[in-house]
Amino acid sequence: xxxxxxxxxxxxxIVSMRGNKNPVDPWKxxxxxxxxxxxxxxxxxxxxxxxxxxxxxxxxxxxCDLWKNTTDESxxxxxxxxxxxxxxxxxxxxxxxxxxxxxSFFDERAIAQADYKEIASLVKNFETIIVECHPKLINxxxxxxxxxxxxxxxxxxxxxxxxxxxMLSLNKQMTLEDFSSSVNFLTKHDIHTRAFxxxxxxxxxxxxxxxxxxxxxDFAFDAGVDCCTVIPVRAGNGAMEFLMEKGDFNLPDIRxxxxxxEYGIGLKAGRVFADVWDLGLFSSCNKCLDKRTDRxxxxxxxxxxxxxxxxxxxx
Length: 315
Prior knowledge:
By secondary structure, the protein is of the alpha/beta class. It has one domain: Aldolase class I (TIM Barrel), CATH 3.20.20. 34% of the residues lie in helices and 17% in strands. The protein is built from ten helices and eight strands. It has an eight-stranded mixed sheet with strand order 1-2-3-4-5-6-7-8. A hairpin with a 5-residue loop joins strand 1 and strand 2. Helix 2 runs parallel beside helix 3, helix 7 runs parallel beside helix 9 and helix 9 packs parallel to helix 10. The chain is globular. The two termini are 26 Å apart.
């Protein structure tokens, strides 16, 4: 497979390409939703997601647009528990919850350790809590939070890609060894892990995008994760549009997402999900978009390969 010199990207350049942030309230989450997910037990359950408002992530990854809903400074003490409490009042009764905060849950500047106890109290009636974190911020703070929880703790980590030079170009500021070490640390302490994997980051052709996403799934499961989520790379943060104009980035095709999901499910090594948000971005065929979306959702939930979609666009 092709090697590429790293793209000349860094924090300063990535930030300079941005537009404006969205207005947010430090005392309320910027969003919440309920979605169905196949849990680690194999059951299909309603799962709540709270999109917490907090300080921007210190890692400025090339493809990230989550900064749009962040504050410039750390939110006040007690703000994160207040956001969770507010969202839980809006939600139906659930057993599974994701706390996603546009960065790393264990970034002290985003979520202070002083708030852990109150957060743990708010979520005590759940069976599972999932948070997200950069592999380099995995440490004993994870254990401290786990020990306060009644629910089981799962942590989602961004692997993104295993292509050596593409990884450097993402400005992720981590190595594959960092990822493996973090998964090993968490597994040793009985914390479940899942991996985020990118489909077709910059500089990869459609076929290479599929190949490297599949290799990343292999790597993640070999490292010990329980679950992988495949995310087709989008534009929308300034930097990615610039790369599109230069010809260094193209949106992946929805059929490639189907292919990678089929591969991952076929491994039977753990759950594999496709991110199905706004799939119209990745389809040039309106005739089969809804059917392909439904097929991806079905495979996410059943973890079985569904009957392929027949359409003229397959020719």
